[in-house]
Amino acid sequence: MTFKNKISLFIFSSYICSAIFVGCQPSINNAKANESISKISDSSLQYELPQIDEDAKNFYVVNDLGRNGYYSQKKIAELLGCMAEKIDIEFVAALGDTHHFDGVASVNDPLWMTNYETIYSHPELMIDWFPVCGNHEYRGNTQAVIDYSNISRRWNMPSYYYSKTVDAGENEKALLLFIDTTPIISKYKIESETYPDAKDKDVEKQLKWIDKTLNESDAKWKIVMGHHPVFAQTLKSESERKELQQKLMPILEKHKIDAYMAGHIHSFQHIKPESGEIEYFVNSSGSLSRNVSPIDGTRFCSSDPGFMIVSMNDNNLKFIMINQDGKPIYTYDRKK
After folding, report:
1. What is the pLDDT of residues 79-108, one digit of tens each?
2. In Å, what is the CA distance from 103 to each residue of 121, 157, 201?
3. Are strands 172-178 and 162-168 parallel, antiparallel or unpaired?
4. In degrees rounded to 5, what are phi and psi of residue 140?
5. Strands, sheet with 46-49, edge to edge from the N-terminal-most edge strand
6. What are phi and psi of 49, to 5 degrees?
7. Which CATH class is domain 3-335?
8. CA dist., res. 215 & res. 289, Å (int)
9. Order of strands, sheet of 57-62, starting from the edge strand that comes earlier in the sequence
10. What are phi and psi of 310, to 5 degrees?
11. Which secondary structure element, helix H or strand E, spans residue 261, and what is its range?
12. DSSP symbol at 115
């Protein structure tokens, strides 16, 4: 596809999406405008804005989205767009399972429209999206998830794993690693008929790359993001977390990263083991959530669906969990 055709497709998709999107024209309740959280409402949507420093650099974290707009997906997509009208969002980190249940077959799969383009159509969401594959993408054509970067101007996935160094305030930088967790977990390689693209991935090569990239960075803040969590309360197989704790966690601890962020579990969780210094966050589903309960090290958990905002400045990382009602239900500050 030529660049001209790519632009035309993007403009056409944006036009169609904008035509069907339920717009928001929020007005701030002036009596509450000076509080730490501003209440926003209009005839179709209500939400609250968390307190964020003016000099901060902010991004969204979303995952486990693809339900063709059903459940809470459309409502949460509207919240993402409307909040971005009030908060300067630099980009979106999409941590896997954009497409349930069997991934996509190609870059022309209709699911790209029904799971993504027509749902996240607000003008404020026409920014960079940095995705990774989840286990559901691995049920389909994972190369198509990468190649969609040649179709969509906002979908930016250069490879299965990659890094970005971004501004974090006025003077500092943050290193963000987007990693491919599915092939690190043995069960996905073993179940090769269900997850055909996992079996040929070189896990040791990726782990060495993670180690090298973290080692070479002088950024003040370091955040690693993947689909599967290292720690979480879930009914999913404990072997998933055990393997990441054995293979990935020693690298993260060696380089003293600030946070590891994941999805997969469909609930909000903040876990910090007693013996560690890393913050482990599980972001909830952007469509359909599941029940959750605390485990050892749990600082917070919620079964609400929603998304997260990460707000970075020179001396603080702020992690904010927003539920489907647009309410900030948990905020954590990591200062240094």
Report:
1. 999 999 999 999 999 999 999 899 999 999
2. 21, 16, 18
3. antiparallel
4. -120, -140
5. 27-28, 38-41, 46-49
6. -95, 125
7. alpha beta
8. 36
9. 128-131, 89-94, 57-62, 306-313, 316-323, 328-335
10. -110, 125
11. strand 259-262
12. I
DSSP code for 31:
G
Each residue's pLDDT tens digit, 190-227: 999 999 999 999 999 999 999 999 999 999 999 999 99
pLDDT 10s digits, 151-167 = 999 999 999 999 999 99
Q: What are residue 148's phi and psi, to 5 degrees?
A: -65, -15
Structure tokens given for 214: 């973290």
Residue with tokens 């904010």: 320
- What is the sign, positive or negative, of the torsion defined by CA atoms of 263, 266, 270, 276? negative
Per-residue pLDDT at 178: 99
- Global pTM? 0.89
* Residue 62 CB-density burial (10 A; 0-12 exposed, 13-18 middle, 19+ buried): buried
Q: Cβ distance 215 to 163 under 8 Å?
A: no
What 3-state class would DSSP assign to 188?
helix
Residues 6+ apart with CB under 8 A from 210: 161, 177, 179, 224, 248, 251
Tell me the residue type at 243: E
Sign of CA dihedral 247, 250, 252, 254: negative
In whole angstroms, give the CA distance from residue 181 to residue 195.
13
Q: What pLDDT score was predicted for residue 301?
A: 98
Counting Cα atoms < 13 Å in the Cβ hemisphere of 194 gives: 10
What is the DSSP-derived secondary structure letter of residue 224?
A: E
What is the CA 128 to chain-centroid distance, rounded?
12
Give the separation between CA 216 and CA 212, rounded to whole angstroms.
6
Token pair in block for residue 176: 């963000």
